[in-house]
Amino acid sequence: MKRPASSFLSTVGVFSLLAPEEIERVTEHLTAVELAEGQVLFQEGDQGNDLYILADGSAAVSIRLPDGGTHEIARFSPGDFFGEMSIFDEAPRSASCHALSRSTLYSLSRSAFTDVIAQQPGIALKLMYRMLNITTQRLRGTSEFVSEMVLWGESARRRAVTDELTGVYNRRFLEDSQGTYFAEAREKGQPLCLVMVDLDRFRDINEHYGNAVGDESIKSSARVFRSLLRETDVIARYGGDEFVILLPNTDPVQGTRMMNALCAEVARLPLLKGMKGPVTSVTTSMGVAGFPLHAADLSGLRAAADAALYRAKEEGRNRVVCAAMPARQEPENPVRKEAIRSIREKNRIIERIIDAIVNRRRFLILGHQNPDDDCIASMISFALILHMFYRDAALYIGSQVHEHFTYLLDICRYNSIPIVSVDQVPPADIDTVVLCDTPKPSMMETSPAVREILKSPNVLRIEIDHHLAADSAYFGDEGYRFVTEASSASELIGHILMKLEVRKDLLERHQVTELFPRNLVLAILTGIIGDSNMGQYLKSRREKKYYQIFSAMFNEMLSRRTTKRTNFFTMDEVFSELQKLSSHEQGCFGYMLERKKLSGSISLVALSTEEMEPLYAGCDDDTIVSTARVIADTLAEESGKLGLVAYYDNPSRSDLVQFRLRRAGGWKKYDLRGLLTRFSIANGGGHEGAIGFRIPRAQIPDFRGYVSSLLEGIEEAIRE
Fold it and tell me: What is the DSSP string of 571-629?
């Protein structure tokens, strides 16, 4: 067998650390390989077992490309070695190698190298050091190529699934993926919206202004879609001027609201402005349909969205139409309530309710006729949670309540939570109804207007209750029935808060800095001790155990938030504390409102450190935070556009300056979240109608100047 000369091996980099006698010992383990021109040494995917040293001739290494072709990545000449990773790893070859000319190579197999390690460990150590050193240098030299190949592969993937004109997904991607999105929605029990979109009078645009303008109208519309849709949403160009949008985990009410914003933004495009012709603006018509409300399968969903799109065109174009649905049919035989059977199912229900809290917008909270302590307390507790997440919540309390409850209702008043009575109309656009502490639907406190809301299939029903008597019956939608054994409905609200406490992502995104403000703790505690008469009415060991846990926990929280004795023994003591808090909040509210100003479209209250000192002395942090939210709401409605509150945190506890901006209910022309991006604010969050953010004191050396600059920036943004 032909063996390599020691003089040749001494010129090979991998042997450069070996003495001549050490090289001689290695040659005993080398095997010669002869290749003809073009002959393949190994293929990509073959099992690698040998390191090769090229003695004469030349060889090339190449990889397969996604399109089926090949790309040469390296050439080797005499003295080069390759395939060294086979010595250390049994992975398949990552490339192919063939001879460019007649060549001679020497191979060192993994088994032979193992023998070297066993017989000559010093030689093996030197060889491994040089192998790894040279391999590292080689990888550095080819890193640019590797990066280019990764980018090339990603680019090729994008070209395969995206539309060349607009950059959004193409029809092929939609057809391949929509079934997956639908299956995921069904498996997780989540809603899914499908939207059909057409550009209005697109043929006229092409005929009168040319194909270039037509193409630009398609591209501009797609840019609007991409800028306003969420990362999880899918936008695909279906063909020509047609688009399809998938909105995961989105119900038809929310989806229609989102599409209305897109429709309005497209109509503001200046592309056709000033052109002489029959079409003076780019507009769209959209049809929205949702699973499971409008269809049980994908084809039915497409058909429902397409029918809604047709109606949008028939009704005049430039609008969004949601698929029609008959009124919700109440079951003839209501299902009797049962305790939730497993912790897993309980957690799933709570997670769905939390998802509704952060994703839905307008809530109406109901209770039973002649409401008691727990009913009122649980309704208010849930409303306060919604308020922390900047959601619109209203309570319907139709009948006269005991005078003791006026203190609880004051909490709503000081948090800008409306209370609707029997002779009042509930707020418009309610998308979620929450029923608290009510054994069966026939016991609900309702009015004709409330019953009309309940007929809508687009309104989500959430139920929170602890009554499991023989004649009990469900009200809530399946998956949103938090109905199980508990001392009170207020205790169940406490369970929701426990789950929210670990959702740091949601709390940070929505700027919830205090999940257990004192008013919320008091409301929950009121329901827990009131409904059970300080635990005396509890029967089962489980109820008594959880009563002790929750009453002790919330009482301890309360003790950290007030200066008086807080081991409450009677309901009168609880209400006395509530009354005390109400007077503090009233004083804080009046102090802030006295300092309001109007600047253009914005009504504001901006309090310097000096102006905050009286509030630090007389009010706790919870009172200041809750009052600031109410003031922002009040200012927004007074101005008709925006309300802003800015104030310094107590310097003994925080070095931040707080800002809260709220949009008036009747003015919906600007998504306030865009301001966070515009002003590069990292520590902020909220939704389209309300945001909050914080700036360190050190970054605001001139408070009045900063507020003035902020007002100018907001005005400029809403004018654009």
Answer: HHHHHHHHHHHHHHHHHHHHHHHTT-EEETTEEEEEE-HHHHHHHHHH--HHHHHHHHH
Handedness of CA 631, 578, 419, 510 (dihedral sign): positive
Tokens matching residue 644: 């802003």
**CA-wise closest residue to 447 among 431, 411, 423, 463:** 423
Query: For position 39, what pLDDT does the model report?
Result: 94
Which burial class, exposed, middle or buried, applies to 658 when counting CB atoms under 10 A from its CB (0-12, 13-18, 19+)?
buried
Task: Give per-residue pLDDT as tens, 577-612.
Answer: 544 555 666 778 888 889 999 988 899 999 999 999
| Three-state secondary-structure class, residue 248 | strand
Structure tokens at 86: 């086979």
Asked if 254 and 431 count as a contact pair (C-beta separation under 8 A), the reply is: yes
Measured CA to CA, the distance from residue 520 to residue 11 in angstroms comes to: 80
Backbone angles phi, psi at 622, to 5 degrees: -60, -45
126/188 same-domain check: no
One-letter-per-residue 3-state SS of 150-211: HHHHHHHHHHHHECCCCCCECHHHHHHHHHHHHHHHHHHCCCEEEEEEEECCHHHHHHHHCH
Domain span including residue 614: 595-719
| CA atoms in the 13 A half-sphere facing the CB of 8 | 16
- The CATH number given to whatever domain includes residue 45 is 2.60.120.10
3-state secondary structure of 403: helix
Q: Do 570 and 532 share a domain, yes or no?
A: yes
Going through 45-120 in order, the beta strands assigned E by DSSP cover 50-56, 59-64, 70-76, 81-82, 96-99, 103-109
**C-beta separation of 15 from 75 below 8 A:** no
| Structural contact between residues 676 and 693, judged by C-beta atoms closer than 8 angstroms | yes
Nearest CA-CA partner of 509 in 520, 500, 519: 500
Contact present, 282 and 199 (Cβ < 8 Å): yes
Question: Is 153 domain-assigned?
Answer: no
Q: Which amino acid, one-letter code, is at 46? A: D
- pLDDT single digits (tens) 373-431: 889 889 999 999 998 888 889 999 876 666 656 667 777 777 778 899 888 889 888 98
Shared-domain flag, residues 624 and 671: yes
Same domain, 484 and 431: yes
624: domain CATH number is 3.10.310.30
Residue with tokens 């001739």: 57
Do 316 and 453 lie in one domain? The reply is: no
How would you classify the pairing of strands 432-436 and 460-465?
A: parallel
Sequence-distant (6+) residues with CB within 8 A of 678 are 713, 717
From the CB of residue 231, how many other CB atoms can be counted at a distance below 10 Å?
4
636 occurs within a structural domain: yes
Read off the pLDDT of residues 221-240 as tens digits, 9 standing for 90 and up.
999 999 999 888 999 999 88
- Greatest Cα pair distance, the chain, in angstroms, is 107
Q: Tell me: do 104 and 13 sit in the same domain.
A: yes
CA angle 439, 440, 442 (to 5 degrees): 135
Q: 487 and 378 share a domain?
A: yes
Beta pairing partners, 365: 395, 434
